[in-house]
Amino acid sequence: MTVDEDLRTLFGQSIAVFASLSGPAHVVEAANPAFFAAIGDGRARTGVKLAELMPELAGQGFLDLLDRVYRTGEPYTGRDAPVVLGDGPQAREAFFDFTYEPRRDAAGEVIGIRVIGVETTQVKHAQRLMAEHRALLEEIARQAPLADTLDGMARCIEGLAPHEVLVSVLLADEDGRHLRHGAAPSLPAFYNEAIDGIATGEGVGSCGTAAHRREPVIVTDIATDPFWADFRDLAGRAGVAACWSTPILARDGSLLGTFAMYHRTPRVPQDADLALARVFAGTAALAIERHHGEQARQAAEERAEAARAELAKAIRAERELRADAEERATAAAQLADRLRAAAAAQAAAPHPEHCQLGGRAGCTEPAEIKIADSWGDAAWGCPAHVEEAILNVRSVFIASEELGGLAAYRAR
Fold first, then answer.
1. Burial state string for 165-185 with b = 16 or more CB within 10 A and e = fewer than 16
2. Alpha-carbon distance 275 to 157, whole Å?
3. Among 22, 95, 155, 245, whose Cα sits 20 to 30 Å from the Cα of 224?
4. pLDDT value of residue 155
5. Residue 272 backbone dihedrals phi, psi, to 5 degrees
6. For residue 379, which phi and psi values (nearest 5 degrees)?
7. What is the pLDDT of residues 220-278, one digit of tens each?
8. Rounded to an integer, what distance in angstroms lies between the CA atom of residue 320 and that of residue 387?
9. In what order do the strands lie in the sheet with 76-85?
10. Beta strand 110-119 with 166-172: parallel, antiparallel or unpaired?
11. Which residues form a coiled coil (predicted)?
């Protein structure tokens, strides 16, 4: 048994990729199932040049490396090398650890190359997933704006998904009966505007139904699904043909929103798709709950600040009232003093010509009205000063022109 036959036996059922190439044209002599599974089982054949079997390799550098190994006889090892496999809608980016090992004849001449490798795509995706997820959690911990966090999450998933996907996050109103736009960076603006505010309910698209049921709703073909009867034309204009929606739930089970993955063509989700949706629906729930908590905290602080402002306003008003009362008391005392002074002066001049209640500045108005108090004091004043005295000095009343005060008034 030759070395190549032994290697085919060893790698036959392995997950490692193995292929044996011959000649400078790199004709595929043999390959294990893992090799054909990696490049696409529809291309599982031998006896053809690798460049013909995989034309997409042109321009990616792998054929040039094969030429160099064949020419120099020096092996080459690559780590986490990215390669695009397939073309058109079926194209995918994969990563490989691989070795190009020269094959030699009995004389030591290079007659071909052995390709041995391990696909590391899932490892790379897992590493990217963990890195992106950690970055999102850090944003949430920093209390980044919710819109920025959700937009970043949507773009992250769109970049991680092996097939084209358009992500949308809708946020539930406080009453849980309507869904509002949260993030959808790759969906058309007219589509986002049209579904902003849709009701939650059975048969209201994928998202409205998922929000109503509190469970995932998978629509694999929008063109035929009854849930999309009212939105079919809208979806057609937006260029989407499948929509898988997962409800975003708080820890207490209340509705926070929905997380949807749209596809350009009808598609059935794989287990990995559903797992990705669950992971990021949970991340979105964390971000939304943190946002709601921050909003509640800010609202409480605003209410407390408003209460403090009202209290300060009440204290200022109380101080102003107290100052006004003190001013009135001072004015009343001054008026009483003027009243007594006028009464004393009146003994010599029973009916003065000018008002006696004008204070230091005096008053030139005619003395028309006589007032008295309960202590027997009396004075003449003008109507304005008499009114001020009656309002601000207790027990002041208008006396008759003949009486000097309360005592004379009682003894008349």
1. bbbbbbbbeeeeebbebbbbe
2. 12
3. 155
4. 85
5. -65, -35
6. -160, 160
7. 999 999 999 999 999 999 999 999 999 988 888 889 999 999 999 998 887 777 777 78
8. 24
9. 27-31, 17-22, 110-119, 92-104, 76-85
10. unpaired
11. 290-342
The answer, yes or no, to whether residue 28 has pLDDT greater than 50, is yes
Instruction: Report long-range pairs for 348-356 (Cβ below 8 Å, ≥24 apart).
Output: 351/380, 351/401, 352/380, 355/380, 355/381, 355/382, 355/385, 356/380, 356/381
Integer Cα distance of 110 and 245 in angstroms: 56
What's phi and psi for 222, nearest 5 deg?
Answer: -60, -30
Q: CA 266 to CA 411: how far, in whole Å?
A: 114
Question: Which range has the top average pLDDT, 17-21, 293-297, 338-342?
Answer: 17-21
CA gap 166, 227 in Å, rounded: 19
Which residue(s) pair with 99 in the sheet?
77, 116
What is residue 74's three-state secondary structure? coil
**Residue in 106, 86, 5, 103 with CA at minimum distance from that of residue 40:** 86
**What type of residue sits at position 27?**
V
Torsion sign (Cα): 265, 163, 44, 62: positive
pTM above 0.90, yes or no: no
- Tell me the Cα Rg of the chain: 47
Residues in the chain, total: 412
Sign of the CA dihedral with 317 first, then 322, 326, and 329 last: positive
Q: Which residue ranges form the domains of the chain, and what is each CATH number?
A: 3-119 (3.30.450.20), 124-269 (3.30.450.40), 326-410 (no CATH)
Q: What is the DSSP string of 10-74?
A: HHTT-SSEEEEEETTTTEEEEE-HHHHHHH-GGG---SSBHHHH-GGGTTSSHHHHHHHHHHH--
Pairing of strands 369-372, 397-398: antiparallel
- When pLDDT is averaged across residues 193-222 and rounded to a whole number, the result is 93
81 φ, ψ (degrees, to nearest 5): -75, 125
- Cα torsion angle, 236, 237, 242, 243, sign: negative
Q: Six-digit token pair at 180?
A: 């509002």
375 or 32, which is more confident?
32
